Amino acid sequence: MSNNIVLKRGLDIPLNGTADQKTSKKIVPNIVALTPSDFKGLVPRLLVREGDKVLAGSPIIANKLCTDILFTSPVSGTISQIVRGEKRKLLEVRIQADANQEYVNFGTQDVSKMNAAEIKDLLLKSGLWPAIIQRPYGVIADPNVEPKAIFVSAFSTAPLAASNEFALKDEFENIQTAINALSKLTNGGVHLSIKDSSYSGSPFHKLENVIQHRVSGPHPAGNVGIQISHISPIMKDEIVWTVSPTMLAAIGKLFTTGKYDLSRKVAITGPKAINPSYIDTVAGVSIKDLSQYYDNSKEELRFISGDALAGKNVGEDGFLSFYDNQITILSEGRDRELFGWAKPFRFAKFSSTRSYFSWLFPKKKYNLNTNTNGGPRAFMMSDVYEKVLPMDIFPIFLVKACLSGNIDDMEKYGIYEVLPEDLALCEYVDPSKNDIQDIISKGIDNMIKELS
Hints:
20 strands, six-stranded mixed beta sheet, globular, alpha/beta, seven-stranded mixed beta sheet
């Protein structure tokens, strides 16, 4: 186990549109959505009907696979629409928010006097248990098991990621409360990874009851999966839990205020964001409520809940995901460039290699779009994945094992250690234009199906 992790492999994407560290507005949403697809492995059972009145913290959905796990309303209001897709698949539960918010009172708690069973019970009935993610596979944590340890990454190196120090500057007492509570759920302790370059000035290094690790290096150094692989790699039959700092703040508020409160600072980012900055809002806010931060009248835009590499394309009609504190706005790259591969003198283009002379300007930011600059082609065997993935696995063999559905090879080459986000850079640099994250996701689904 290392307390000072130095990563050399990786790649920082110099994307334009970093959010200024200021809160430009508080947005009280009109419509908020609870989206089952935010939660991997959820088989939803609907608990409400259109027209029902709910409070913030009222149960909306239960998990058929574990009925103790509830998903509750982020706001008080009225169930305005239940959106279904093919074969009546539940896509969204939309809630018309009240002007004045009311909350279910779960009661304030003294964590020091609670045992593990009481902490689990409160998290389950409040709807905050889904804040805890279980690895392998990235599913909602099983409340009936004890993890090897719990891991938290205090920073993100993803493109234009929100600054946790700024976004959570008023939440550190709540974060400490959450850590004290979660530490009772495992004998392996809570591991907290902090960015080495800002360690001394970060409030995170003052948190107690944690095992601290200092991490340096390019993206994906901030991914909790990368950190786990260097602290305590996940072996077969081992389980670890992860929690983001944003969700730690929500858990802490539950214990200190008795409220299910998903309010948070959200970074509006990206080359096409107008006045990129932070807003005060709530999880599930509609993208259309953010209309003052973009202009799609002249070109087609992509709206991503999360970062540009691993976030979810939600569209203008979509909503901020349960776990995210960032919206990225990019231009859809529909254009084609004739003989683009033969034009090295392109200073407005970024390359992960030295294909263009843009490498002469290492501090330059780029207005990148979604254009992949080519279509899918034959799968090439090369070392490009290894150059951007600082893990002791064989990524190209893992991807091929997922494509073939070979369970033994997936186990051999590291499926237990990764989630799609960990290989997002592999997808970015892949000369074959493969959808690596989707391949890994389908491989994980196959593992769950075959080994459950």
